[in-house]
Specification:
alpha/beta, Undecaprenyl pyrophosphate synthetase, six-stranded parallel beta sheet, 6 strands, globular, binds 3-methylbut-3-enyl trihydrogen diphosphate, binds magnesium ion
Protein backbone atom coordinates (compact mmCIF):
# COMPACT_ATOMS: atom_id res chain seq x y z
CA UNK A 1 0.00 0.00 0.00
CA UNK A 2 1.11 3.52 -0.65
CA UNK A 3 0.40 6.21 1.89
CA UNK A 4 -0.91 9.61 0.87
CA UNK A 5 2.48 11.18 1.39
CA UNK A 6 3.95 8.83 -1.20
CA UNK A 7 1.48 9.85 -3.86
CA UNK A 8 3.35 11.80 -6.53
CA UNK A 9 2.13 15.37 -6.83
CA UNK A 10 2.65 15.41 -10.56
CA UNK A 11 2.58 12.42 -12.90
CA UNK A 12 3.56 12.97 -16.53
CA UNK A 13 2.80 10.29 -19.10
CA UNK A 14 4.16 9.57 -22.57
CA UNK A 15 1.16 7.71 -23.96
CA UNK A 16 2.92 5.52 -26.51
CA UNK A 17 2.02 2.39 -28.45
CA UNK A 18 -1.36 3.14 -30.02
CA UNK A 19 -0.09 2.23 -33.48
CA UNK A 20 1.41 -1.09 -32.41
CA UNK A 21 -1.69 -1.95 -30.43
CA UNK A 22 -3.81 -1.49 -33.56
CA UNK A 23 -1.42 -3.21 -35.95
CA UNK A 24 -1.30 -6.28 -33.71
CA UNK A 25 -5.07 -6.54 -34.11
CA UNK A 26 -5.18 -5.87 -37.84
CA UNK A 27 -6.80 -2.49 -37.19
CA UNK A 28 -5.91 0.94 -38.55
CA UNK A 29 -3.56 3.16 -36.54
CA UNK A 30 -6.44 5.58 -36.11
CA UNK A 31 -8.39 2.86 -34.34
CA UNK A 32 -5.43 2.60 -31.96
CA UNK A 33 -5.54 6.33 -31.32
CA UNK A 34 -9.27 6.09 -30.63
CA UNK A 35 -8.64 3.38 -28.03
CA UNK A 36 -5.75 5.43 -26.70
CA UNK A 37 -7.99 8.43 -26.16
CA UNK A 38 -10.37 6.24 -24.17
CA UNK A 39 -7.46 5.04 -22.04
CA UNK A 40 -6.52 8.68 -21.42
CA UNK A 41 -10.06 9.44 -20.32
CA UNK A 42 -9.94 6.58 -17.80
CA UNK A 43 -6.51 7.50 -16.50
CA UNK A 44 -7.73 11.01 -15.68
CA UNK A 45 -10.48 9.49 -13.55
CA UNK A 46 -8.07 7.04 -11.91
CA UNK A 47 -5.56 9.80 -11.15
CA UNK A 48 -8.34 11.76 -9.45
CA UNK A 49 -9.31 8.71 -7.40
CA UNK A 50 -5.70 8.16 -6.33
CA UNK A 51 -5.41 11.79 -5.23
CA UNK A 52 -2.82 12.83 -7.81
CA UNK A 53 -3.17 16.61 -8.08
CA UNK A 54 -1.34 17.14 -11.41
CA UNK A 55 -1.46 14.88 -14.44
CA UNK A 56 0.28 15.71 -17.71
CA UNK A 57 -0.54 13.74 -20.84
CA UNK A 58 1.72 13.91 -23.89
CA UNK A 59 -0.82 13.76 -26.68
CA UNK A 60 1.03 15.24 -29.66
CA UNK A 61 4.69 16.15 -29.90
CA UNK A 62 6.23 18.91 -31.97
CA UNK A 63 7.78 16.09 -34.02
CA UNK A 64 4.51 14.24 -34.63
CA UNK A 65 3.85 16.49 -37.63
CA UNK A 66 6.35 14.21 -39.38
CA UNK A 67 3.65 11.53 -39.58
CA UNK A 68 1.54 10.94 -42.71
CA UNK A 69 -0.94 13.80 -43.24
CA UNK A 70 -3.91 11.42 -42.85
CA UNK A 71 -2.76 10.29 -39.42
CA UNK A 72 -2.11 13.87 -38.26
CA UNK A 73 -5.53 14.90 -39.46
CA UNK A 74 -7.18 11.93 -37.70
CA UNK A 75 -5.35 12.85 -34.49
CA UNK A 76 -6.62 16.43 -34.76
CA UNK A 77 -10.16 15.16 -35.32
CA UNK A 78 -9.94 13.00 -32.23
CA UNK A 79 -8.62 15.90 -30.23
CA UNK A 80 -11.47 18.10 -31.44
CA UNK A 81 -14.00 15.39 -30.60
CA UNK A 82 -12.70 14.89 -27.07
CA UNK A 83 -12.33 18.56 -26.29
CA UNK A 84 -15.98 19.04 -27.27
CA UNK A 85 -17.21 15.91 -25.53
CA UNK A 86 -15.17 15.88 -22.31
CA UNK A 87 -14.73 19.50 -21.24
CA UNK A 88 -18.10 19.79 -19.47
CA UNK A 89 -17.63 16.43 -17.76
CA UNK A 90 -14.14 17.31 -16.56
CA UNK A 91 -15.45 20.63 -15.30
CA UNK A 92 -18.22 18.89 -13.42
CA UNK A 93 -15.64 16.65 -11.77
CA UNK A 94 -13.53 19.57 -10.60
CA UNK A 95 -10.72 19.23 -13.12
CA UNK A 96 -8.74 22.21 -14.30
CA UNK A 97 -7.61 21.83 -17.90
CA UNK A 98 -4.34 23.32 -19.08
CA UNK A 99 -2.65 23.02 -22.44
CA UNK A 100 1.09 23.36 -23.03
CA UNK A 101 2.81 23.44 -26.40
CA UNK A 102 2.81 25.77 -29.38
CA UNK A 103 -0.89 26.12 -30.01
CA UNK A 104 -0.35 28.67 -32.79
CA UNK A 105 0.26 25.79 -35.21
CA UNK A 106 -2.97 23.97 -34.29
CA UNK A 107 -6.20 24.38 -36.28
CA UNK A 108 -7.98 27.58 -35.19
CA UNK A 109 -11.18 25.85 -34.05
CA UNK A 110 -9.10 23.62 -31.77
CA UNK A 111 -7.35 26.67 -30.33
CA UNK A 112 -10.81 28.09 -29.55
CA UNK A 113 -11.87 24.84 -27.86
CA UNK A 114 -8.67 24.89 -25.79
CA UNK A 115 -9.23 28.50 -24.72
CA UNK A 116 -12.80 27.69 -23.79
CA UNK A 117 -11.77 24.61 -21.77
CA UNK A 118 -9.06 26.52 -19.95
CA UNK A 119 -11.25 29.46 -19.03
CA UNK A 120 -14.26 27.35 -18.04
CA UNK A 121 -12.18 25.20 -15.67
CA UNK A 122 -9.64 27.74 -14.42
CA UNK A 123 -10.92 27.80 -10.82
CA UNK A 124 -11.20 24.04 -10.36
CA UNK A 125 -8.87 22.51 -7.82
CA UNK A 126 -9.42 18.75 -7.58
CA UNK A 127 -6.95 17.84 -10.28
CA UNK A 128 -5.07 19.77 -12.96
CA UNK A 129 -4.96 17.92 -16.26
CA UNK A 130 -2.22 19.27 -18.48
CA UNK A 131 -2.45 18.32 -22.14
CA UNK A 132 0.81 18.57 -24.05
CA UNK A 133 -0.19 19.39 -27.62
CA UNK A 134 2.36 20.26 -30.26
CA UNK A 135 4.73 20.25 -27.31
CA UNK A 136 8.52 19.91 -27.47
CA UNK A 137 10.82 20.14 -24.47
CA UNK A 138 13.55 21.93 -26.40
CA UNK A 139 11.05 24.36 -27.85
CA UNK A 140 9.77 25.07 -24.33
CA UNK A 141 13.31 25.97 -23.21
CA UNK A 142 13.92 28.13 -26.28
CA UNK A 143 10.62 30.02 -25.77
CA UNK A 144 11.55 30.74 -22.14
CA UNK A 145 15.04 31.91 -23.15
CA UNK A 146 13.57 34.20 -25.80
CA UNK A 147 11.07 35.73 -23.41
CA UNK A 148 13.78 36.40 -20.82
CA UNK A 149 16.00 37.91 -23.53
CA UNK A 150 13.11 40.14 -24.57
CA UNK A 151 12.62 41.29 -20.97
CA UNK A 152 16.30 42.07 -20.57
CA UNK A 153 16.30 44.02 -23.83
CA UNK A 154 13.20 45.96 -22.75
CA UNK A 155 14.87 46.78 -19.43
CA UNK A 156 12.21 44.83 -17.50
CA UNK A 157 14.74 42.54 -15.87
CA UNK A 158 18.45 42.19 -15.41
CA UNK A 159 20.67 39.33 -16.56
CA UNK A 160 21.90 38.95 -12.97
CA UNK A 161 18.33 38.24 -11.85
CA UNK A 162 17.87 35.28 -14.17
CA UNK A 163 18.14 32.08 -12.17
CA UNK A 164 16.60 28.59 -12.15
CA UNK A 165 13.45 29.86 -10.46
CA UNK A 166 12.80 32.70 -12.87
CA UNK A 167 13.61 30.38 -15.77
CA UNK A 168 11.14 27.78 -14.46
CA UNK A 169 8.43 30.39 -14.21
CA UNK A 170 8.87 31.20 -17.88
CA UNK A 171 8.49 27.61 -19.00
CA UNK A 172 5.06 26.62 -20.33
CA UNK A 173 4.54 24.82 -17.01
CA UNK A 174 5.31 28.06 -15.11
CA UNK A 175 2.85 27.61 -12.26
CA UNK A 176 2.85 23.79 -12.23
CA UNK A 177 5.21 21.78 -9.99
CA UNK A 178 7.83 19.65 -11.74
CA UNK A 179 6.78 16.04 -12.42
CA UNK A 180 7.73 13.58 -9.67
CA UNK A 181 6.98 10.54 -11.78
CA UNK A 182 7.24 10.06 -15.53
CA UNK A 183 5.58 7.03 -17.09
CA UNK A 184 6.23 5.81 -20.61
CA UNK A 185 4.30 2.92 -22.09
CA UNK A 186 5.05 0.57 -25.00
CA UNK A 187 8.53 -0.57 -23.99
CA UNK A 188 10.44 2.41 -25.33
CA UNK A 189 12.91 3.82 -22.85
CA UNK A 190 13.43 7.31 -24.16
CA UNK A 191 12.15 10.78 -23.35
CA UNK A 192 11.29 11.85 -26.93
CA UNK A 193 11.65 15.57 -26.22
CA UNK A 194 9.05 15.60 -23.43
CA UNK A 195 9.45 17.86 -20.36
CA UNK A 196 13.27 18.05 -20.53
CA UNK A 197 13.82 20.89 -18.07
CA UNK A 198 11.03 19.85 -15.71
CA UNK A 199 12.04 16.17 -15.42
CA UNK A 200 15.49 16.87 -13.99
CA UNK A 201 14.63 14.87 -10.86
CA UNK A 202 11.59 12.87 -11.93
CA UNK A 203 11.52 9.14 -11.21
CA UNK A 204 11.27 7.34 -14.56
CA UNK A 205 8.95 4.36 -15.00
CA UNK A 206 8.89 2.35 -18.20
CA UNK A 207 6.35 -0.37 -18.90
CA UNK A 208 5.81 -2.69 -21.88
CA UNK A 209 2.05 -2.16 -21.69
CA UNK A 210 0.78 -0.49 -24.85
CA UNK A 211 -1.08 2.73 -24.12
CA UNK A 212 -4.61 1.53 -25.12
CA UNK A 213 -4.24 -1.27 -22.55
CA UNK A 214 -3.06 1.03 -19.75
CA UNK A 215 -5.50 0.69 -16.85
CA UNK A 216 -5.92 1.92 -13.30
CA UNK A 217 -3.94 -1.16 -12.18
CA UNK A 218 -1.00 -0.02 -14.30
CA UNK A 219 -1.19 3.47 -12.83
CA UNK A 220 -1.26 1.98 -9.34
CA UNK A 221 1.80 -0.11 -10.18
CA UNK A 222 3.67 2.99 -11.30
CA UNK A 223 2.63 4.88 -8.16
CA UNK A 224 3.79 1.94 -6.01
CA UNK A 225 7.15 2.00 -7.84
CA UNK A 226 7.38 5.70 -7.05
CA UNK A 227 6.55 5.13 -3.38
CA UNK A 228 9.51 2.74 -3.16
CA UNK A 229 12.05 5.22 -4.45
CA UNK A 230 14.26 7.34 -2.26
CA UNK A 231 14.81 10.74 -3.82
CA UNK A 232 18.17 12.17 -2.86
CA UNK A 233 18.55 15.25 -5.07
CA UNK A 234 22.29 14.85 -5.06
CA UNK A 235 22.48 14.32 -1.29
CA UNK A 236 23.02 11.03 0.49
CA UNK A 237 20.63 8.35 1.66
CA UNK A 238 18.55 9.28 4.71
CA UNK A 239 19.71 5.98 6.28
CA UNK A 240 23.35 7.03 5.92
CA UNK A 241 22.80 10.09 8.08
CA UNK A 242 24.04 9.47 11.59
CA UNK A 243 25.72 6.19 10.69
CA UNK A 244 29.34 6.11 11.91
CA UNK A 245 31.79 5.50 9.07
C1 LIG B 1 1.28 7.33 -29.32
O1 LIG B 1 1.17 6.16 -30.04
C2 LIG B 1 0.33 8.40 -29.81
C3 LIG B 1 0.98 9.55 -30.44
C4 LIG B 1 2.28 9.72 -30.55
C5 LIG B 1 0.11 10.58 -30.95
P1 LIG B 1 1.97 5.94 -31.38
O2 LIG B 1 1.14 6.38 -32.53
O3 LIG B 1 3.32 6.57 -31.33
O4 LIG B 1 2.10 4.37 -31.40
P2 LIG B 1 3.33 3.51 -31.92
O5 LIG B 1 4.55 3.99 -31.21
O6 LIG B 1 3.41 3.75 -33.40
O7 LIG B 1 2.97 2.10 -31.58
C1 LIG C 1 6.08 10.45 -28.08
O1 LIG C 1 5.79 9.30 -28.81
C2 LIG C 1 5.02 11.48 -28.29
C3 LIG C 1 3.69 11.17 -27.75
C4 LIG C 1 3.36 10.11 -27.07
C5 LIG C 1 2.69 12.16 -28.01
P1 LIG C 1 6.41 9.02 -30.24
O2 LIG C 1 5.88 7.71 -30.69
O3 LIG C 1 6.14 10.18 -31.13
O4 LIG C 1 7.97 8.97 -29.95
P2 LIG C 1 9.15 8.29 -30.76
O5 LIG C 1 9.05 8.78 -32.17
O6 LIG C 1 8.96 6.82 -30.68
O7 LIG C 1 10.39 8.73 -30.06
MG1 LIG D 1 5.13 5.90 -30.74
Amino acid sequence: MTSAQNIPQHVAIIMDGNGRWATARGLSRTEGHRKGAEAARHVVTSAGELGIPYLTLFAFSSENWNRPADEVSDLMSLLRYYLKKETAELHKNGARIRVIGDRAALPLDIVKLIENAESLTRDNAKITVVLALNYGGRQDIVFAAKELARQVKAGETDIARIDENSFSRHMMTGDIPDPDLMIRTSGESRISNFLLWQMAYAELYFTDTLWPDFSKKDLERAVAFFAGRERRYGGISAQSHGVQG
